[in-house]
What we know:
Blueprint: E1 7-10, H1 16-27, E2 31-36, H2 40-52, E3 57-61, H3 70-83, E4 89-94, H4 109-130, E5 134-143, H5 156-176, E6 182-188, H6 199-202, H7 204-212, H8 222-232, E7 244-247
Helix pairs in contact: 1-2, 1-8, 4-5
Amino acid sequence: MATPAPIALVTGGSRGLGRNTAIALARNGSDVILTYRSNRTEADAAVAEIEAAGRRAVALQLDTAKIDTFPAFVAQLRDALAQWQHERIDHLVNNAGHGVHAPFSETTPEQFDQLVDVHLKGVYFLTQALLPLIADGGRIINVSSGLARFALPGYSAYAAMKGAIEVLTRYLAKELGARGIAVNTVAPGAIETDFGGGAVRDNAELNAFVAANTALGRVGLPDDIGGAIASLLSPANRWVNAQRIEASGGMFL
């Protein structure tokens, strides 16, 4: 009997790095459940691309800032898994998020709270809610940022959330180890996506600045991150645990 395909849940999987990750996982043989916050059209397009790669996929709506919706989401996830005749997911990629660019002196409590709700509180309590549905021996990837290592003006609040996520990753690895669940952080550098209004992609001066300060001499592409996450979730990397893996091409070395 053939070994069942692993099932991955990717939050924020309808666009940007999340979508790229979902497709990379599908190409590596995973079935994928992806979440989207509001754009169903983008989510359906991602599902279609995964299905074109020969894997199963479904998109579920989720706003990771609204923890009171998590029980209903878990119920929806159970139903989706039942349709595939499964009860558990194998991999969870906590990717959903947004950026705030503002000087420390001008960052508002509202901006700060929005970042906490999505990048820290949402990740913490969504992972908690999903624990019964994560298979023993499964894997969790929390997406951080190179900004948790190097500092660029305007990202103090965003980077603080990602620093917290990196600490949380180590605690999850420690506490979930008894179930054989490995937990790691992937920290992308600057990537050409629509994140932050597409500044890295569309601003030629910023793009050149990043490339000049990256050892490999260019700005990152979505495939650089999706492929890294898919590789980390492959069986060959099953012994990697509690690690921060930066995928930045060597920014600000």
